[in-house]
Amino acid sequence: xxxxxxxxxxxxxxxxxxxxxxxxxxxxxxxxxxxxxxxxxxxxxxxxxxxxxxxxxxxxxxxxxxxxxxxxxxxxxxxxxxxxxxxxxxxxxxxxxxxxxxxxxxxxxxxxxxxxxxxxxxxxxxxxxxxxxxxxxxxxxxxxxxxxxxxxxxxxxxxxxxxxxxxxxxxxxxxxxxxxxxxxxxxxxxxxxxxxxxxxxxxxxxxxxxxxxxxxxxxxxxxxxxxxxxxxxxxxxxxxxxxxxxxxxxxxxxxxxxxxxxxxxxxxxxxxxxxxxxxxxxxxxxxxxxxxxxxxxxxxxxxxxxxxxxxxxxxxxxxxxxxxxxxxxxxxxxxxxxxxxxxxxxxxxxxxxxxxx
Length: 357
Ligand SMILES: [Zn+2]
What we know:
This protein is of the alpha/beta class. 36% of the residues lie in helices and 14% in strands. The protein has helices spanning 30-41, 57-60, 65-80, 104-108, 116-122, 135-154, 184-196, 211-216, 266-281, 309-321, 336-350; strands at 2-4, 16-19, 22-25, 47-49, 159-162, 200-204, 223-230, 255-260, 287-292, 325-330. It has an eight-stranded parallel beta sheet with strand order 4-1-5-10-9-6-7-8, sandwiched between helices. Helix 9 (266-281) packs parallel to helix 10 (309-321) and helix 10 (309-321) packs parallel to helix 11 (336-350). The longest helix has 20 residues, at 135-154. It is globular and about 55 Å long. Zinc ion (ZN) binds at residues 206-208, 293, 295, 331-332.
């Protein structure tokens, strides 16, 4: 199996994030991608290949140009204003209650702030998303990793894996958040639709609901989105991810959320995975984009499910057994000592080989 990877992710190198307002060591760090790369590079069944550049157009097909502009300008603004900070996060976000009673048109006409703190809130969801000097470049390369993985599959590979970092599924059309800046999976799915004219399914198995992916395709029926995740009443992103979110307009019925109970184990999770796969199989299409997270792992520091390495091998096998081509893209997973083994198990499962004990 080909694994698309580049060291360019290292430019996004936060050391701290905030948890309930208190600085804590960052979870989404370069060592995550290095652990997975090292494990796959040491396994003869995987071949590491570099991404190719795809330019901004595939990003602009999914994201608001203002978000792209903000992310490009954010760190230069910090430097220009000589703000003494290691990273940029906002304190103030425009929540929906601020605009209560005002019309959609009125709210949409509110101008983007000029101050960098205001802009960061304007384009952001939360403060757990520090922007560093190399964040924009790293996020652009993560998109190129995703699109290169798409190219491999469109070029004839049955399955390919993009080791995206930073991850993407919390990023909405006009919003970064949750360690995500550009939505790699959404950009990949939209590119596949453009290239093939086929419908595409996104299967999201990160522990967190992919609120960004759901928002981007909420009113579209050409990209169907199925997600298994911790119940948002317990876990980030808190405000979306409930079972009654099915899409609207042409997208009605094209969104499937399967919230999981606390400490859901392999058997519980795999039963719902089968439901998601049946749902995907009921619609035409030959390619699935997988948003692959390992924060469902039993020892993950920020997840609250209880999957095992053996569970990941079985998950990979069941997804591959659907017989569709797979564009597998990395999202979360924060238990560093297990990331390599878990990725190897999942991808070997998907590649049709039984992991060694
Ligand atoms: Zn996650």
